[in-house]
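ENCODED BACKBONE
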Amino acid sequence: MFYKLFQQSPSLLFKLLTNPPENAGEYKFDSVAVKEPKFEIDGVFLPPESANPGVVYFCEVQFQKDERLYERVFAESWLYFYRNRDRFSDLQVVIIYPSRNIEQSDIRPYRNQLNGDQVYRIYLDELGNIRSLPLWVALMLLTTVKEEQIADEARYLLFRNQEESVAPSNLAIIELVTTIMVYKFEHLSRMEVEEMLGITLRETRVYREIKEEGREEGREEGEKSLILRQLTRRVGELSQEARQRIEILPLEQLENLGEALLDFTSMDDLQAWLAALEE
């Protein structure tokens, strides 16, 4: 979900920071690989080529407790920085949590990093009232709202969106609010969620149609790359056959797989999902 948010608006990350770079609007959100050993880092904000050397930002969104999170994040980010030292003058790390109780328990080994000026820890539930936040930041907070309240808050954000935004930003926010709600209400179809929010299918169709063909193809390739990385983390290294079956899936089925894999715990889950698709 946050991957999609940052793809749509890379500058969103810097709205959370107290000291954003002056050229925040020129950053590109990307995924990078570090070899020997190989790491896949999904949340990297790269400075423009003109800022050479520039500052690279690493972002981790953590909604489940991980008692080795800081070990991994610092190892990956510093190794990537080392491999690309000529391009970057500095690095910053941003960790986004829904609340403090998700944070790693033992942080003593990293007290210098965590208390310095290179690491930002963002707790979404401490940002303030969702209705008083900037619209794009409020979208991030919407992911943490309780199920009994989220429909009201989502409708409010859509109302604000009508008042404050212009196309294509207006349509992008409609799409992202709908996607967040689909994640929250897994038992409802996308159409049922749209009815809950008072959104017509025509609006979301327009959003898709205004995209240029090349951009749509780029989105599909990005979706494939992200899902393959997420599957590797979830169920282990994929066989060549499994990768080929996933790479030929159309965009709609890729998005369905992106949601389904959140419940996968083994390779058998993936094989069962692919088998059900063929049936």
